[in-house]
């Protein structure tokens, strides 16, 4: 039986394929991709896609060492909308092309906030965190606009290691951003896997049945950190044999029964405008200077012919008047 208090999301995916075209990759991943004037991660050619709210994909290619190699980074706004079948098909394509995963983030969500950030901090302070990590830090977040607290983020491990765990209040983070879906979230336990660990995790997900993914992912989490009835002064063997803290046993058992979420990400007009300003404003300015205003108007009119239902929905946000229609010059 599904437990909707706990959910899992594949939150980030990055991979490199030694030989592929942008067209082949986009057919597998999806989305409309366009070339930019800047490079990406050392690759001289960069392509971008924007899907859903905050869903950005970047592709680098054209490296001198291998002109056909492509590297792709896909953010949470894209990957979190994939169902299990889509995840498996993308991973299968990558491995068929002899590619490798360079990063995979897995987010386990305690949506009812059964365990608080304060409980986790207290356990770490009491020496009850049994972990392979050599580093723990707490980063206090706040809004640059008004100084309002956005909560603490707990980090186990470092960005340079192949495994890092972040624990933070996802609900509070989304509330500060004014997101309507904030109440659907709680405390997030987010594993960032890189290089060999990301590759191993991806291969396991591809070979396991989807119903077994949850227990496997919780196993990765618990192999990295456990919370047990122990102290700082206990011997290592005593720590690993100590009983689990009751809240940790309940939480991880819930995660084992969680469901993999396919997020319904709704893009807004504000998202589109922000993305335009950040991503292609320089290219628009270049086109305007070299081709003039009439060229941009022609592009805009041609683009309006490609509107789909989601574009029309954004166009008419908050409008009670008749739909706006672009006309040729």
What do these coordinates show?
With 329 residues, the chain is an alpha+beta fold. It folds into 2 domains: 6-260; 280-315, no CATH class. It is built from 13 helices and 13 strands. The strands form 2 sheets. Strands 1, 2, 3, 4, 5, 6, 8, 9, 10, 11 and 13 form an 11-stranded mixed β-sheet that branches. A hairpin with a 6-residue loop joins strand 9 (149-156) and strand 10. The longest helix is centred in the middle third of the chain and has 15 residues, at 210-224.
List keywords for this structure.
globular; alpha+beta; 329 residues; 13 helices
Residue ranges: pLDDT <50 for 5 or more in a row? none
Work out the strand percent. 15-25%
Number of domains: 2
Look at the helices and sheets and give the structural class. alpha+beta
**How many strands appear in the DSSP assignment?**
13
* Tally of contiguous helical segments: 13
Overall pLDDT score: 85
Q: What distance separates the N and C termini?
A: 59 Å
**H/E order of the elements?**
EHEEEEHHEHEEEEHEHHEHHEHHHH
- Specify Rg, calculated over alpha carbons: 23 Å
Shape: globular
In helices, the fraction of residues equals 25-40%
> Biggest β-sheet: count, sense, barrel?
11 strands, mixed
